[in-house]
Amino acid sequence: MDRQGLVTGPLNAMNEMPAKFEARAARKNAKRDGRKRLIAESAIQALKELGYANTSLRDIAEKSGLSLGMLHYYFEDKTDLIIYCVQRYKRELVREILAALERAEGREQVVSALSEALVASIIDDEMTHRLWYDIRTQAMFDATFRPVVTEIEVMLMDIVRAAFIKAGHDSPDKVEISYALLDGAFRYLMQGQIGDNPRSREELTALFISLIRQFV
User: Fold this and answer.
1) Using CB atoms within 10 A of its CB, is residue 19 exposed (0-12), middle (13-18) or buried (19+)?
2) Full-prediction pTM beyond 0.70?
3) Which partner for 63 in 9, 42, 115, 146 could form a disulfide, CB atoms 3.0-4.6 Å apart?
């Protein structure tokens, strides 16, 4: 072997090592994230059946088919798990709504797309929203929840901003106020679905269309 080969061979091998480690770490992280998503889905099912206050990590461990020790391997405590569940759901919801708004053309399509997305969210994901509002309230007393609440509310404001722009308007100067008004209506209507006289999908959609038209 020539002198160049003696030098470049070991160097090439050394350069390949970090790439192998990075690939292995990526596979490990993907596997871990996949397991955490499965646990989150099981946690939501347990919470739907037992409610937030009555659900322990042990209940969630049983639902997900894991030992309590294994559950603690992925999540520090119940708070950590609930934050992960809500954060994951809200990120997906925001992506879906922004994609629907991106496909909309003109003001009426924007109003319709946003209204239908919000109604579907109320009807299909009531329990996750309950957890979100619980976390948001707890953030006023417990600093643990504040970073994730801030992150989620910034994403939700992005929805309001996108709706204005897609409807042909400039982004509102005070998007926080527009978001707060829409969020208040959303929470009120969602809370009404928990009672004895929930509104139909059509009624909710009509209410949101009327409301959002006033915004955009």
Assistant:
1) exposed
2) yes
3) 42
Report the CATH number of the 77-216 domain: 1.10.357.10
Interatomic CA distance for residues 27 and 80, integer angstroms:
23
**Could you tell me how many residues make up the chain?**
216
Domains of the chain: which residue ranges? 1-75, 77-216
Whether the Cβ atoms of residue 136 and residue 190 lie closer than 8 Å to each other: no
**Residue (of 95, 210, 211) closest to 162 by Cα position:** 95
Residues 6+ apart with CB under 8 A from 22: none
Q: Is the pLDDT of residue 71 over 90?
A: no
- Count CB atoms within 10 A of the CB of residue 131: 19
- C-alpha span between 35 and 13 (Å, rounded): 33
Q: Tell me: pLDDT of 112 over 80.
A: yes
Whose CA is closest to 36, among 81, 67, 76?
81
Q: Does domain 1-75 have CATH number 3.40.50.10860?
A: no
